[in-house]
What we know:
globular, mainly alpha
Amino acid sequence: MAPRQRSPTPDDDDRSPSPLMHNKKMLEKEESTASSSSLTAESEIARDKHDIFNLFALLPVVLLTVVNYDWQKVVNELSPESAWTGDYFFAYWSATMLYFIVDLIWVAVVPICVKSPNVIIKHHFIALIYLIGPYLWPHYRWFMGACLTVELNTWFLIARRVAYKRNLSGTTLSNVIDACFYASWIIIRCIIYPAILYTFISMAIVGIAETQTIMHWELLFLPIHFFLCVLNLKWTYDLFQPIITRWYKGEQRPTRMSSGL
């Protein structure tokens, strides 16, 4: 008697996939890989365009920061408040507002142009609110100049990345940009910004003591600056933690630079 044939079950199909199913899975995997590669290439192009935009768009902000200060007083007195002239304030304020609005829209429309679009959008939104302060209260305008020195560091950050992508790493130009980037990061983000926060708090304490009330609209900008200080602290950790780890382990600098914020 011939052995009775057992009908195939779904388990049998799972254990022994047909050639058709195997080819379908392979095709889906290849399509997924191709799609991922295409997205990576697209994001790199988007980031390159955004970087070039920032290199040019930040220049007026940086230059107007410089011309609104008496630099002889900055050097001699180390006091940004007394050194502030504000001769070109409205051009300065308008250029800065325009830059943040355009860049905010750019990142919102093309989020792949930056590594952390949500963080950048929140940062720019906070910055736009912050910029209302110096417009409404002229005696605080010197704070705007002190805060916007950070855009010099941002410019070096972007220039550093662009130089690296143009295979200029290791050249004199790249080394100068690197040195300016790290020096301005430490001086501005790690020293000037906390110093501004300290000045804010000191002025708030004096103002509350003199008026016997905490109802001052200017105090709304204190938590905003505190938020920016916290953000700088996070970014400082993200920047230096891998570097310190490499030094500790005796590893070489990575061949690929981070895509940035």
